Description:
The chain has helices at 7-35, 40-49, 52-66, 70-90, 97-126, 129-165, 169-194, 209-224, 229-238, 241-255, 267-295, 297-309, 313-321, 326-354, 360-400, 402-415. The chain is mostly helical. The chain has 2 domains: 1-206, MFS general substrate transporter like domains (Growth Hormone, Chain: A, Up-down Bundle), CATH 1.20.1250.20; 209-418, Up-down Bundle (Growth Hormone, Chain: A), CATH 1.20.1250. The protein is globular.
Amino acid sequence: MRKSKNPWLWLPPLYFMEGLPNVVVSVAAVVFYSDLGLSPSAVAALTSTLYLPWVLKPFWSPIVDGYSSKRRWILAAAMAFAAAFAALALAPFSEKRIVVSAAAFWILAASSATFDIAADGFYMMALDKKRQAFFVGIRNSFYRVAVVAGQGGLVWLAGAFASKFGAEKNAAWGGAFAVCAALCLSAVFALKKSLPTPAEDAPRKIESAAALYADFKACFVGFFARKNIFIILFYILFYRFSEAQLSKIVPIFLRADRAEGGLGYSLETFGAIQSAAPLALFLGGILGGIYISKRGLKKSILTMAAFMNLPNIVYILLARFQPESPAVACAGICVEQFGYGFGFAGYMMYLIEASSGEFKTAFYAVCTGLMALGLVLPGAVSGAILERAGFFNFFVWALAATAVSFAASFLAQRRIAD
Length: 418
């Protein structure tokens, strides 16, 4: 068994591949459909539904955990990434490009959610406690590299293809997705050679349907029987109420014509801005984690909510003054992303705290599924709100909507043990 294979050989591609499909579905898809000419309401509704696989992830996590091996699930999901990106590369040339691309994005999302389950389980199997602690920051760093590549690099690449080769938008996006397909296919071969085979990750078979049902029942009954469950649910579902709406509209805002209230940036400029933002988010996350470790979650949670939500005023200012300089917009967005990263650290610590107990792995899967649900519903209606209100008024609404996050944080603080 190759349990001791050097983690530096397999951990970077593993967590890069975990991050890339997620950010493509959540950010790049918004820009892609906007470029295809869909209305903001249609873009927001369609791309929000793409998050449903992460909502439903807890329902098939016992299958991933109980059947075959994590290593095989990882390789199969990575192959599915390559196939989905290849389909996306061809979709812009189809007469039914919306349907074909939506199906490909769904495959990408479902395989990404499956990859998440398998990769996180494999990480715990392949490394002992000491090396898990050592590599936790490193794995997050490579995940962030994937975020930069997906929400910045991919969009920039589409713009570069369009400007350098005179390609129309559809062809430019097709070329960018083809590069992603080749990248994923390369990662499959790299992971197949580099992933160890821990003894604990031996191939397994589900004992019976009854045993599988018993696992489901123990997980969900145990979670929803927890003390203060309604406060837990309210916090998980509504802490990101404002951010869930902003995440769908900000990419549209950066690309929309200035006459429509947007900033009118090209794909290349958009990609450059979105490449810088994750770096600020990463720094905010690190400092947020340090802050929690010093003060504790109970004393930190309201401060975290303030960092998460108050910088949303940046978008009101950008919509009001519409700066022509991309550097000004980039600086503002980096400030907002730093605050988001700082505040999100508190949210993730709360999920860990809420998942404690005998079934903590399964409970955490439920929590992350609920987190995804909290993004789907507000995100789905954000486009319709934008079409009625315009960009400036939408961002004013998004700032006012942060009151829901503060209310959820106040209630959650009361149930956290000292």
